[in-house]
Predict the structure.
Amino acid sequence: MESLIGFVPPSSYSQLEQLLKKNSVEIKITKDRKTKHGDFRINSKGLSSITINQSLNPYRFLITLLHEIAHYKVSITTGLKAKPHGFEWKSAFRETLLPFLNLEIFPDPICSILAKHMKNPKASTDRDFDLVMALKSYDSKKKAAYIFELQNGDFFKIYNGRRFVKIKKLTKRFECKEISTGRFYIFSPHAEVIPE
């Protein structure tokens, strides 16, 4: 629990300590990864571990930790038979997160949006636009812009320097064209970009 102090909301410490006593899993805090916030693994010796990005704000960190603890719980009860984000995981995630779902731990609007999200949780919170935007408002550093804020025809870069032009909105996401290759890519509306 000591290694998590400063990474999760202080009002969650007591409940989190009780949860971790019941679920013996190693937790490692890692450098920022662009493709995921955290993960759960069982190594070749059968030992379980959770990794979580150190750069997450306390609310996203706690949600990610509870998400991965739900994976751990499912692995204990079903082994590797259950789908990674299937019925068993959704049930375990709801059961794990519910005691934390209150205004003492999560401020509004995160709390109310998270309650709605948990009715049928997705494999990633990044698929819930409202939840992403509520969580991002607590990030320590604001990125340049979100793709949904750009106009069609605007040019932008992403974190690795690749350049794109925004083409059009699809149902929920945005079609963009990479300048150097001419290939088309689909971006989530909350993708952070650097306008040119």
The radius of gyration is 18 Å. Helices lie at 13-22, 58-78, 87-97, 110-117, 129-136.
